[in-house]
Specification:
Two copies of one chain form a homodimer. Mean pLDDT of chain A is 89; it is low at 1-16 and 219-232. Chain A is built from ten helices and no strands. Chain A starts with 19 loop residues before the first helix and ends in a 20-residue tail after the last helix. Chain A is mainly alpha-helical. Chain A has helices at residues 20-38, 45-52, 57-63, 66-91, 95-112, 116-125, 134-153, 162-178, 180-186, 197-212. Chain A is globular. Chains A and B meet through helix 6, helix 7, helix 8, helix 9 and helix 10 of A and helix 7, helix 8, helix 9, helix 10 and helix 11 of B. Chain A binds a DNA duplex through residues 16-18, 20, 23, 44-46, 54-62, 65-66.
DNA sequence: GTCTATAGGCTGATAGAC
DNA sequence: GTCTATCAGCCTATAGAC
């Protein structure tokens, strides 16, 4: 868990019937499941309470209302995502491998939180970026930016605008995974077989590595360092 | 206009006060503006009627309810989009140029219907693809598929899975344009300057052309035709 | 075809008992 | 902390006058 402390808040004398943290967690989980699927307006507090197995009044008590719960869900998802992607940078010997790990991390994340991309896309499309998640979004953008810059420093990538690079890469990823359930539902009425996440990731990696290859692509890779601190 | 006939339904004896087609059009336009921004659940029939300058009862009369109007909006947008992109194929001397025109057409479209990408993303993420729009979606996918296949035939592109190619390209495009309003709103609180649509399109084109370049990239391009009818 | 008026359901929030 | 009961507001759809 990310947002709440790990230990279950020691109970003082056994007076309380249940663990209040469990209630919060159940609500967060219900929100994480329902909001991405139906959107904020598509989910009622009744839905959330039922799914969490608690009373709907507790949403207001713990999160100050439906919107509060929504923001908490959003934030916890972004925190986890940003953490996950940030670790990528440590384990990579070079930018080429860093890109590979980044894509793998994204794919892995969609296993644990398969509907996070949808949550993210909805957020970006409707309300706009909520102030609470902006720092984590920027943190993710910093990862891709460092990847692009490092690759250029290492002579593996040509110089590209890191912001454009980020939106092209993350946009394709987010879109693919957010629309995955829709594809699966449409599968019977469609004349092509479902692309797997693995195949897509591989395609994207291939396109990116080739797309970023320096102008003169010879066998020896790390040869020229060129101007080091050059910035436009 | 696309969905309705061009001529304004000849009036028989001047009995009617107004043109009913005008009502339909006003509602479609109101929907095209409001649904992408707030989502289906986020818009009330009152909102729609007010924006269209007509009475809310007319939504049920003309479209059989709010959902009916939504589907009509969706369909008209997809029809226009698919038409627009299909023309790309005619004017292109080769696949390389076809890709360029495809991206340009997409960008142009976002000028006339700036919120279509958001509408599309919402649709794909939530309800799933509506049966009414599926044919047009497939029509768009056929354009990208032909582009990929033609490029390979012409010796300009290496062989890639057209479905993966489609989702990577259109995903990045859709994401970028759908999130454009969110970026603009977040601009003051963000440490980088706004990427322009033009720059993004250029980046994407560059990445795609390089990413699709055949293995052996020599000067002469259209030299080897290889096996022609080979399909897996 | 267009309008007004209204029905009937569901929504999110909260007061108050335990 | 958790629950029950309840409220006021908004929602979509429609009957019926014009």
């Amino acid at each position: 868990m990310v947002t709440s402390l790990a230990r279950p808040s020691r109970r003082k004398k056994g007076r309380e019937r249940r663990d209040p943290d469990a209630t919060r967690r159940a609500l967060l989980e219900a929100g994480a499941r329902l909001f991405p699927e139906k959107g904020f307006d598509g989910v009622s507090v009744e839905d959330l309470a039922t799914r969490a197995g608690i009373n709907k009044a507790l949403i207001s008590y713990h999160f100050g209302g439906k919107r509060g719960l929504y923001v908490a869900v959003l934030e916890s998802a972004f925190v986890e995502m940003a953490e996950r992607l940030r670790t990528v940078e440590d384990g990579a010997p070079d930018a080429r491998e860093g890109l590979h790990l980044f894509l793998r991390a994204f794919e892995d994340m969609t296993r644990g939180r398969p509907d996070f991309p949808a949550l993210f896309l909805r957020e970006a499309v409707s309300t706009g970026i909520h102030p609470a998640v902006l720092p984590h979004l920027l943190s993710i953008m910093r990862v891709t930016r460092r990847l692009a810059e490092r690759g250029h420093r290492e002579g593996l990538f040509r110089r590209v605008d890191p912001v454009l690079f980020h939106f092209a890469l993350v946009g394709a990823l987010g879109f693919f995974f957010a629309t995955e359930p829709a594809r699966r539902r449409a599968a019977p009425h469609v004349p092509f077989k479902q692309p797997t996440a693995q195949a897509f990731i591989h395609h994207l990696e291939e396109m990116t590595v080739r797309g970023l290859a320096p102008e003169a692509s010879s066998e020896t890779k790390k040869k020229s360092k060129k101007r080091k601190g050059a910035r436009s």
